[in-house]
Amino acid sequence: MAAGFSALAGTFPGCLPSPEKTKTLKDQPLVLRFKPYELQLRHVFTLAGSSRTTTPDMLTELEWNGIVGYGEASLPPYLVETQESVSKFLAALDLGQFNNPLLIEDIMEYVNSIAPANHAAKASVDIALHDLAGKVLGQPWHRMWGLNPADTPLTSFTIGIDTPEVVKEKTREASDFKILKVKLGRGDDREMIESVRAVTDVPLCVDVNQGWHDRQQALELCHWLAGKGVVFVEQPMEKSLKDDIAWLTERSPLPILADEAVQTVEDVLPCYGVYSGINIKLMKCGGLRAAREMIALARALKMKVMIGCMTETSCAVSAAAQLSPLVDWADLDGNLLISNDVFDGVKVDEGKVVLPDRPGIGIVLS
Ligand code: MG
Prior knowledge:
single chain, 366 residues, alpha/beta, Enolase-like, domain 1, TIM Barrel, 2 domains, eight-stranded parallel β-sheet, 14 helices, globular, binds magnesium ion
C-alpha cells in the first residue's frame, strides 16, 4: 500500500503525505471512539412544529496509524435517533476487524448490515471514515471526486419563525448571505416574508416543514411567493399527502422540493413525479457514500438537488460541502447556528461555500 501512495507523491506538493511518511503506514486495526456532545444554539430555533435551544450530538473519531478522522451524528429531537441509540449502535460495531481505511465500500457495507435505519449513527462513521481515508491519501474528497471547488453554490442562511422585529434583526445580521431560507408554515407566512423583504432584496427560498394543509391555498401562496422573489418551496405539505403535493408541483410557478419526504436513496424514486427535487442531508441518508448515490439517482431522473444539514458542527457541514459542487442549492449554515463548534472547516465568503484546501473533509480541531 505504501508504494502506491509514494507513486502519487509530488502531484500536489504540500498536500500529499511524503513518501517517507507513507512508508511508515502499517496494517493496524481501525479504532472507533465516540462521545456525546450538546450543541448550543445561538438563537431559539423555531420550526412549524417546535422550538429549542440545544441539539444533542455525538462526536466520533476513527484512528489508524496515528491518523484521526472525525465524524458526527446530529440528533434533532424530531428525528427518532438519540444519543442513547447512537451509542448503542456504535458500541455494537467491530471496526477493529478492518485494517485498511481505504476500503470504504467494504466497511460501510458492514456498518449498514448491523441494523436497519440508524442513519445519523451510520453517518457519524461514514464521515469519520471519509475524513480518515482522505487524510491517508492526502487529498480533499471534492478533488478525489473530480469536482471543481469553484463550482460550489451559494449557501442559504435560515431565518426562523419569529416576531417581525426579530425577523428583521436576524435578516440584517445575515447580510453576508446572497440567498436566505425563510421558515414558514405557522399561519403568518405573508408577515414573515414582508418582514424579510423590508430589509433585503436577495433571493429567498422557503421551508414550510409540512405546515400547509390546503393545496389550493398552497398554490395561491406559491404564486404570491414567486412575486416576492422566492426561488423554491421546501416540503409544503405533510409528506403523506402525495397526491396533493403532486397536484401542487404540477401547477406551482416555483420548484417544490422534498425534505421530510426523502431520507435515503430508497425514497428518491417515490418522489419522482411528486416533487421537483430533493433535499439531501447526511444525517438522514447515512453519510457521504449514500448522499452520492442519491445525487446520481436524482440527476438520472432530471430532478433538482439541494444539500442541507441539521444544526451541526463544522465537521458534518464540511463533509456535506465536499459534495456541494454537484448540487443546485446548498443550505449549509448549521455550523453557523451554534456557539460551541469544535472544528474549523468550510467557510462562507460573500454567501458562497468555500472548500478548505485540506485533506479529508477539510477540518481541523478549533
Ligand atoms: Mg427542511
